[in-house]
Amino acid sequence: MTQTLEMLGRLTSFKQEGSRIIFEFENGRLAVAVLRDGLFRIRYGFQGKFMPRRSWAVAQDDSAFPGVNFQLNEQNDSIELVTARNILKVGRAGGGIQFLTADGKTLSQDDPESGPLFAEDGKVSTLKLIEEGDHFYGFGERSSLLEKTGRRYTCWNSDPVDSDLDHGPGADALYQSIPFFMALRPEAGGYGLFFNNTFKSVFDVGHSREQRLGMEAAGGELDYYLIYGPEPAAIVELYTELTGRMPLPPRWSLGYHQCRWSYFPEDKVYEIAKNFRERKIPADVIHLDIDYMHGYRVFTWDAERFPDPQKMTADLGEQGFKLVTIIDPGVKYDPGSDYQVYNEGAEKDYFIHNPDGSLFHGYVWPDDSVFPDYARQEVREWWGDLHKVFVETGIRGIWNDMNEPSISTTPFSQVGHHMDIPDQAPQGSGADRTGHAEIHNIYGLLEDMGTYQGLRRLDPERRYFMLTRAGFAGIQRWSAVWTGDNSAVWEHLEMAMPELSNLGLSGVSFAGTDIGGFFGASSPELWARWIELGAFYPFSRGHSCAGTPQKEPWTWGEDVEDIARKYIEWRYRLLPYIYTLFEESTRTGAPVLRPLLYEFYQDSRTLNMNDQVMLGNALLLAPVYRPGVDYRYVYLPAGRWYDFWSGQPCDGQHLLAHAPLDTLPLYARGGTVLPLAPVMQYSDERPVDLLTLEIYLDEQGAAQGRLYEDDGETFAYERGETCLTTYQVSSAGGQVRVTARREGSFQPAPRAVEIRVHSPAGLKQTRQEQDQGNWEITL
Ligand code: GLC
Predict the structure, then answer these.
(1) Helix segments in 589-629, DSSP class H
(2) S-S: 600 plus which of 31, 66, 637, 674, CB 3.0-4.6 Å?
(3) Ligand 1: residues within 6 Å at CB?
(4) 3-class state of residue 552 by DSSP
(5) Taking 90 as the threshold, does the pLDDT of residue 11 lie above it?
(6) What is the distance between the alpha carbons of residues 447 and 175, in angstroms, rounded to a whole number?
(7) Which atom of ligand 1 approaches the CA of 290 most closely?
(8) What is the Å distance from ligand 1's center to 530 Cα?
(9) How far is the CA of 263 from the centre of ligand 1 (A)?
(10) Nearest CA to ligand 1 atom 4
(11) Distance from chain centroid for Cα 383
(12) 372/330 Cα distance (integer angstroms)
């Protein structure tokens, strides 16, 4: 029960300290920091003081931002901070915020009758007005449609019980919590809001009260950042400057991944690999789920099932496969055994205790388990170092699962319930010491951080792949994300588009859903449609649950296998483009897979465009996501578009696309250049010996594109060993001129380049035997 609610009362004084203003109110204080033009931090210290800085989600301290000049105006009812792009008003009565564009359009404002509040039980909240025409996106990993008005969104990392209903449109909290949203209005532009609070929080977007946006957290501070766009790309760029960006993943991890719970013993793993190579379906990665371990003890191998893991990784490595192993945070409670992970963790007191001081226990795969306190630096280091066993074995990726953490009240053989670690269970150390209530949402993120940093210490020059189920804002700094246990139902294929789109807008580029659905049996038609879309996911992995029918690409006979081969081959052909998009995301946070509104938010038709997505700025996908459908409606925003398969320009903006089972309607945007590689069976089967540039002219006969390259597997790119080629295309008098300019010290292998120019006049093409990097041709 919320007890007495307190408001700030009246403003008594304020003072400026550099780019920050401290406002003193009768019942507390407020700090407003102007970090950049368009980036403001708002912090209420209701008890008259501010909490210690929490470094968990925000990548850099306020002092690392340049700060900007602003003007202070004292008005009768507010104090105004005026920058070149925004006005931010602080109400003298109650400390409410109004955020405007420089020309006076309100982006967001606190409800004048409510606004910032705190309660005796520690809850903090604020209520904002929803402006007419606002559309909401983001909120991290969410089921339901793209636009988020009308619902409540809880941030509390959760592993929903095994049913498709729990992931369906009605689902609320899932595995990731990202308390960030963006609001867009075509005429005023958009803004973003990041609630910098790791306690359980809730956003209520016009659900309980019409045209009101409620925002509350169970504890901590009312501390949030306002980000001005106006366009989505600018919002994501600032949001990821705040919470960090993804490091470049190894290039091979952008290939196709095959997984199942579980491939064992090792013969089975070899058999899966052999099938891919014999059937000529490209793939780079096989995942080992929990059954590789000895009795589900993390960091061990089952010696009977996997007698020589090092030999296995080497053999499969020769065939071009990398292996990824799963890890869960629950460590088997194993006193008196020789299980070193438990013994060492217990001896050094690394596991979480209950508020009464006893060791906290819960049940996961190994049954009775204990849980590392990742909020402590030394525990993260210990955990990171435990990965030595994998590094030495030649494992190239770590998959962190069950890290919400997902815990059961009883052994898995009995019917139990999910439980959380008690809210008051102490974690962390020093100034970061706090209860589980504040750590819960970042438990997985801290595990991922420890893993990432450990791998970097153990094998400093090699990029590893990381995958996580749980996370919080900023998870992109440590790991790729998959959306947990979906089902083999059409609704979950459809849902993948808005779910991945909103994750992308929330800073998480490297994401995918289980292709084919985790639970249940997939029909041949569903799996075929799923691989057509899934082959374009930033993270592309087929997976399935133990006890379900097999779901490898060849399971349903030749027709589906041919479809899988076709789309996975296209993924490999597109790898130069996809890798370039990933590199862009490491610098700007731009999502690799994006909703149409990311490119075209001023076109109001895109604001609810739920069933079309873009891969980068050049490709538009309009998948079929219903059974028995072989024609579908496609909307093309203004500009010239080409049918990707035929290369022909499209006629009009509203199309009825023919989409028989082997066809995903796919469109290339005029004005772009797609760099393509030859088909390969795995990403580095051989260097790209023929680079194809598919050029799509816009209405002015122009196009631009980029190609980023490096060695694909080391951190040399951080030292500048990269190569960026920029393509510029223009037309005059029926002739097309293409120029390539290369910069950077990395030297791609010698190759030929094939240039194919698409325009309404048809296809022009030519080929040069030597791609010299810098060249100019006319055709
Ligand atoms: C969880 C994961 C799933 C995995 C299974 C067994 O359900 O979400 O991907 O296969 O655990 O480890």
Answers:
(1) 596-600
(2) 637
(3) 261, 289-290, 326, 401, 469, 484-485, 543
(4) coil
(5) yes
(6) 14
(7) 12
(8) 19
(9) 13
(10) 261
(11) 24
(12) 8
Average pLDDT, stretch 483-509? 97
pLDDT of res. 7: 86
- Residues 442/447/452/458 CA torsion (nearest 10 deg): 150
- Averaged pLDDT, 529-550: 98
Phi, psi of 252 (to 5 degrees): -60, -25
For a mutational test of ligand 1's pocket, the pick from 259, 263, 327, 402, i.e. the residue with the most ligand atoms closer than 8 A to its C-beta, is: 402
Q: Which residue has the tokens 């960090």?
A: 244
Atom of ligand 1 nearest to the CA of 485: 8
Q: What is the pLDDT of residues 111-170, one digit of tens each?
A: 988 889 888 888 999 999 999 999 999 999 999 999 999 999 999 999 987 566 678 888
Residue in 324, 325, 545 to alter for ligand 1 test, most ligand atoms within 8 A of Cβ = 545
What pLDDT digit, counting tens, does each position of 432-449 carry? 899 999 999 999 999 999
Residue identified by tokens 């030292």 is 719
What span, in angstroms and rounded, lies between the C-alpha atoms of 757 and 761? 10
Residue type, 13: S
Structure tokens, 639: 């500009």
Ligand 1 center from residue 386 Cα (angstroms): 21
Confidence grade of residue 2 (pLDDT, cut at 50, 70, 90):
very low
CA of 545 to the centre of ligand 1 (A): 7
What is the three-class DSSP state of 610?
A: coil
Percent of the chain beyond pLDDT 90?
Answer: 91
| Strand ranges across the sheet with 703-709 | 762-768, 752-759, 690-696, 672-676, 703-709, 723-732, 735-743, 775-778
Q: What is the CB-side half-sphere exposure of residue 108 using CA atoms within 13 A?
A: 28
Rounded to an integer, the average pLDDT of 646-657 is 97
Strand arrangement, sheet containing 222-228:
11-17, 20-25, 28-36, 39-45, 222-228, 189-195, 180-185, 135-138
- Look up residue 328 and give its two tokens: 């869960």
For ligand 1, the distance from its centroid to the CA atom of residue 743, given in whole angstroms, is 44
- Give the Å distances, CA to CA, from 375 to 56, 363, 472: 9, 21, 14
- Average pLDDT (734-750) is 97
Could you give the residue numbers annotated as active site?
401, 404, 485
Closest ligand 1 atom, residue 518 Cα: 9
Distance from residue 129's CA to the centre of ligand 1 (Å): 41
Q: How far apart are CA 504 and CA 487, in angstroms?
A: 22
Tell the residue nearest (CA) to atom 10 of ligand 1: 261
DSSP state of 52: P
Element (H or E) spanning 595, and its range?
strand 593-595
Structure tokens at 643: 């049918």
Ligand 1 atom having least distance to the Cα of 262 = 10
**Predicted structure pTM score:** 0.97
574: CB partners within 8 A, 6+ apart = 536, 615, 674, 676, 677
Position 731, amino acid = S
Q: Do residues 545 and 519 lie in contact, with contact meaning Cβ atoms separated by under 8 Å? A: yes
Q: Ligand 1 pocket test: which of 161, 163, 258, 261 has the largest number of ligand atoms within 8 Å of its C-beta?
A: 261
CA–CA gap between residue 327 and residue 331 (Å, rounded): 10
230: preceding bond cis by omega (within 30 degrees): yes
What is the separation of C-alpha 190 from the centre of its chain, rounded to a whole number of angstroms?
Answer: 21
Ramachandran region of residue 518, left (φ > 0), alpha (ψ -120 to 50) or beta? alpha
Among 122, 178, 179, CA closest to 434: 122
Residue 521: is it exposed, middle or buried by C-beta count within 10 angstroms (0-12/13-18/19+)?
middle
326 Cα–ligand 1 center, Å: 9
Q: Which atom of ligand 1 is nearest to the CA of 545?
A: 10
Average pLDDT over residues 214-232: 96
pLDDT score at 418: 87
Q: Residue 101: pLDDT above 70?
A: yes
